[in-house]
Write a structure and sequence with these properties.
9 strands; binds adenosine-5'-triphosphate; binds magnesium ion
């Protein structure tokens, strides 16, 4: 266990039993204890007096002793934390969750808030809301990772292809029962009770990504797609029935139950993500942009702090202007504004193998493994370039890699491509465009 995870775990111990987190000075003290440094050394490496560090250590060790019900000292602290943490073995199934390969910036307030809700308040139902590309999936994955050791089971499921409730419940119950329960009772409420049974028995964290897929598209927010109303029963039950688990979901639209149940006295919470603030500038710099702070601020505002837009625009600036923000801001492209225009521009720049993969993924919709992509490219004699093509699409922020070794398009890109595929297809049917779909 490394220091970061040890701090996470200790934080959870304190939150669980003392209803508080480590303070900044306690985290520093804990680091000294973990690395077997003297308080004197810790003081020299920081701005704190030795006496202040000693006081913080004494309070921390006292509270930890109460939390674990045995005397914790500077000497035995690391051993106790390691021993306790190793007893908690979490069974994890990250499903199609994206692998976090990009630098992650900011969101410290939101992460702390989620940690407090999940570990401290034991919230049962939490929704992460916000527009496409704002960072809901990335934050949910990070939060899930931070709190996973507190759970016996962690499960991630994407609702992007709108699975019928029954299919999803069967999948969850099978996993949580260790595949001893394979069939669910026929009625929805009885099937939901089976899931609740496992959520009561053990602490499970379930993450549903892309929950907007089960909502009706259109002007009226907060309605389920026809045939998906029974999801309301599931969310209502998870928010109100007694159990020890947590459902975290990401959605572009609020679900009706969440609006009805959300409130300080209920274990139901919701966070609306807005654009990144200063973290956006960090992100731009990490991608390789150079510019004075006011230019970076302009670019951030232009993209409304949306990390996906920032990434795509920043990658274009790196490729086209050698990373010089000022040159981009002077040019025509700056006036493009809308993400659709930026995406179209990116698409126009793709090489043939990249286009083939992007169209193929848009048509398939489900993540494709490397060997599936290889099979697809074989007849076109493009396999040689596969790794380079994948790398290039990743560096353009168009491709997402999933935990189970699949590749898929970013959601916003998937939607854009779906529209684009339909346009290309109708042009081909009208006969005024070369048959690209012969290759895709
Ligand atoms: N805080 C962040 N720092 C750096 N990159 C981020 C951050 N948040 C998100 N990203 C990146 O921005 C892109 C979009 O993020 P993400 O997929 O989480 O958005 P989303 O809100 O889930 O969008 P959608 O509604 O389309 O599913 C991803 O490439 C992700 O890695
Ligand atoms: Mg998402």
């Amino acid at each position: 266990m490394d220091l970061e995870r040890a701090i996470d775990y200790t934080n959870r111990l304190l939150l669980g039993s003392r209803q508080r987190s480590l303070t900044a000075i306690e985290a520093l003290t804990f680091k000294a204890i973990w690395l077997d440094l003297s308080y004197q050394d810790a003081s020299q490496n920081s701005n704190y007096e030795v006496a202040t560090i000693k006081n913080a250590a004494s309070r921390l060790l006292q509270d930890l002793s109460k939390a674990v019900d045995q005397r914790v000292s500077k000497k035995n602290c690391k051993g106790i934390v390691l021993a306790l943490a190793s007893q908690v073995e979490t069974q994890v199934d990250w499903g199609n969750a994206p692998i976090d390969m990009q630098p992650f910036c900011g969101r410290t307030v939101e992460l702390a808030q989620l940690q407090q809700w999940i570990l401290g308040d034991r919230a049962k139902l939490i929704s992460l809301l916000g527009t496409g590309g704002i960072g809901k999936t990335a934050l949910a994955a990070r939060a899930g990772d931070h709190v996973s050791a507190d759970f016996a089971f962690v499960l991630w499921r994407s609702l992007r292809e709108a699975p019928p409730l029954r299919e999803l419940l069967t999948d969850l119950v099978q996993f949580l029962s260790g595949f001893t329960e394979i069939e669910l009772p026929p009625m929805d409420d009885r099937a939901i009770s089976r899931l609740l049974h496992y959520l009561q028995q053990q602490r499970c964290l379930i993450i549903f990504d892309n929950a907007e897929a089960i909502m009706a598209a259109g002007d009226y927010a907060g309605q389920y797609r026809p045939g998906y109303e029974n999801y309301g029963l599931l969310f209502g039950a998870i928010g109100t029935v007694r159990h020890q688990s947590c459902l975290l979901l990401t959605s572009r639209e609020p679900l009706p139950e969440l609006m009805e149940l959300a409130g300080v006295d209920l274990p139901v919470r919701s966070i609306s993500l807005t654009g990144l603030d200063h973290a956006a500038n960090q992100l731009l710099e990490k991608i390789g942009l150079q510019g004075v702070p006011s230019d970076l601020d302009r670019l951030r505002d232009h993209c409304q702090g949306n990390p996906l837009y920032l990434r795509i625009v920043a990658n274009t600036i790196v490729q086209t202007f050698n990373g010089k923000v000022a040159q981009f801001l002077q040019g025509d492209q700056y006036t493009y504004g809308k993400i659709a225009a930026v995406l179209q521009q990116q698409l126009d720049r793709l090489t043939i193998p990249e286009k083939v993969i992007v169209y193929h993924l848009a048509i398939k919709r489900e993540p494709q493994t490397r060997s599936q992509l290889e099979q697809h490219l074989q007849p076109l004699d493009l396999v040689r370039d596969l790794d380079q093509t994948i790398n290039s699409l990743q560096s353009r922020s168009l491709l997402e890699t999933t935990q189970n070794e699949g590749f898929t398009l970013q959601n916003v890109v998937m939607e854009f491509m779906t529209t684009s595929v339909l346009q290309v297809l109708s042009a081909e049917i009208r006969g005024d465009r070369a048959a690209f779909f012969l290759t895709a």
